[in-house]
Amino acid sequence: MSAIRLHKALGRVWASEPGWRGWLTTVNHTDLGRMFLFVAALYFVIGGILAMLIRAQLASPRSAFMGPEVYAQVFTMHGTIMMFLFAIPLFEGVAVYLLPKLLGSRDLAFPRLTAYGFWCYAFGGAMLIFALLAGIAPDGGWFMYPPLTGPIYAPGINTDFWLIGITFVEISAICAAVEITVTVLRCRAPGMSLDRMPIFGWYALVTAVMILTGFPPLILGSILLELERAFGMPFFQVAEGGDSLLWQHLFWLFGHPEVYIIFLPAAGIVSTVLPVLARTTLLGYGWIVAAAVSLGVLSFGLWVHHMFTTGIPHMGLAFFSAASTLVAVPTAVQIFAWIGTLWKGRPALRLPMLWLLSFFATFVIGGLTGVMVAVVPFDWQVHDTHFIVAHLHYVLVGGFVFPMLAGLYYWLPHLTGRRRFFRIGEIAFWLVAVSFHVTFLAVHWAGLLGQRRRTFTFGPDDAWSLLNLVASIGSFVLAIGFALVILDVLVNALIAARGTRNPWGAGTLEWAMPTPPAAYNFASLPEVADRDPLWADPDLPVRIARGEGYLAGAERGRREILAVDVASGRPVQVVVLPGNTALPIAMSAATGGIFLGLLLKTYWLVPLAALVVAAMAIRWVWCLGTDADAGPQAVGHGLRLPLASDSADPPGWWGSLFLIGTSLTLFGSLLFGYAFLWTVAPNWPPPSYLHSGWASPALAGIGSLLACLGIRLAQRRLRRGRLPLVPLGAVTAGCGALVAAAVTVMAGTSHDAHAYDAVAWVLAGHAILHAGVPGLMSLVVLAAALRARLSAARSGPVHVLRLWTDHAAAVTVIGLVAIWLPGWLT
Amino acid sequence: MTELLRIAAPLSLWLASFSAVYGLEGLVCSDAWTGLELDSGAGRAALVAAMVLAVSLQAGLLVALQGQRFGSGVPALRRISLVLGIAALIASVWTLLPVMLMPLCL
Predict the structure, then answer these.
(1) Which of A61, A303, A535, B11 has the greatest number of beta carbons closer than 10 A?
(2) Which residues of A touch B34 (CB under 8 A)?
């Protein structure tokens, strides 16, 4: 088949719907990546405008530009937007757009999940922007410390917008992280073993796993604070056994890894772009992978360095000071590897390289001030001053925005298919690079002199008046620079001349396709034998276009990609992806109903919306099954592979595995919170512990046994070709018993009496949710069995259910024992 | 997945032991510790024992990753897992050193 015919055949299958409807129903990663990038850029502009308002206020002493209430909303929303609505979603956008192309696939593992995540992000972000425009935006700082944000000192709806809106947006991050993890591990080109994977794949994998393990503590903290605000459950109120420091632990368990969640993708871009512009290969690939993994894990051991002034014992301070200095080592390994790459290559000083050089200078300065604040006595001096503000801007702007701009200019020809013609970008670069340092050097200085952050004004006699004026002038020039970047991108995207396919002479697979890319990326999937396939085989793009790879064309009239073995990259399954659908946007709107009900205290809406979400989720999974075993499918080169739906470990199994990892992190955080309150909080022990008797533990024990044995029996019967109706019924009954055991805890405690009772309610609620979900899933699988949608081959749903059932049994029993144990011992 | 576990294991073990020792320090400095009629000497001994255990486990894992039975068969991934094993061992010694040098509960 000719290349044109292949293109037409694939286009018919993979294209999004035409017109405005296409934006609402697309599940294609190229479309959704662009949508993420566009919306994130929009939030960057909004966050930038808020930054200008802050600098306008601080330009002169005793400024009457804003009052303290408005100023508090503006700086809170600036931080919140930049961290949650710009930085993380921008990474998601880059990963969603690029990963399948870099990895040699046609799409991500779960296209509908990408779309669902995008719409959760769009709706959740809109909630926060509405609050800003209505003058009821959050005003407790981007880290929302109680008791300032508790029901006593912040009784309005402002804080609720943050807690509920950000949790809604975090669904998007979790969805993207599951998507990225499974895609990197399973949806690569044949032959792309882990050690041949593009370096950005490693960074994306580490970042995604960090999101899966880093976000749950914040989600838990937000839930606890909202429960305290809405229902008086005293997690953070000392008089009733709570402790406001618990929030700080939960927040920074997320907050410090968050810094690396933002930095690592940018470092991935540096490691991808730098060698191409230096016209050489990346020096120390293995060292860089090790450094990225090290940063990812070490960053979880640093959270207390944000709490050095809270009265923690010196030994605890020393632990985290040591860990904080340690993290400089893998960062330095990367910096030296990049410098070595420049040294061995022939660097071309093109615009992306200018941004990379600016990144080097700025990020190294930010890193060094980071080492300074890791030293406890220094931190005590500068804590909560503008020195910290300047440090974090050096790290986040220098370490994230500058590399992202390098990436933007590097992949702009890929996004637009055009060659950059207008040279506004160079002027913009110099404006930004110089004015950034003018602004934040002055802010550093003001902080060292003692200017406190989050204060809306200062006196004319304060030593930092002139410095603030300099910083404000610098920041407005900075804003002009960023505006010129946007103008440059727009004019070059819209009216520049058409460009060539691989303008930088890169070696990675995203350049092996015509640009802008077609919806299906590759006319056939390439076999990869090198880390830089296009350098090893310059004719590869032509052979891909001719259909000489795997899954050439779309002969079966459906969207197909290959799943590979994790380590070796050997193809093992054919994955059939779903087509365009409005289900993700509808389900995210229904999910929004849950959050809106909580926000507006219209609690009747919450179960109603949850029912709609559950119904849509059932429809979602029902579409994945087939009515008969399809048998091995021809994929080209004489190879025949089973469908993923005919396999024991379809992508859904892998997605469930990582989602359960996330759930376990949340559960672990909850147990940590319980142990923290029990050990550290004043006013413990509570007036009384719950005494369970024998019936509830027996119910929990029988329920977990029934569920775990039932699912194993179901697998066994299915393997023998028999329908597992009774075992699946046992799973449902087991989950029901677990729910009933958890309900007895709620019946035996009063949710607002003491922090112990409140924790008991949350653990019981957690158990009800986690046992309820597999209970519902078992009914769906039972229905699938009755409709002959299960067989020995099509056993994937039962394997997925086993993961969720075992998880439910474990967390329910552990959670309930944790509640009952003090009662048994006293 | 086994290859990824080899890469993830060393520093995950460090994170688990680091968090556990920090938690133990919290327990040693809490009222619960004195409620058990234990003094600060016992607290220090418990922390040092925990450190020794953590470092030993880390060293054991490094030895295992070097061996034929548990080590990776892919040379590049083997190197990465060993580098991370050494990094985790150094991290354990460096970050847990305060249990020997710093005052308890001050």
Answers:
(1) B11
(2) none
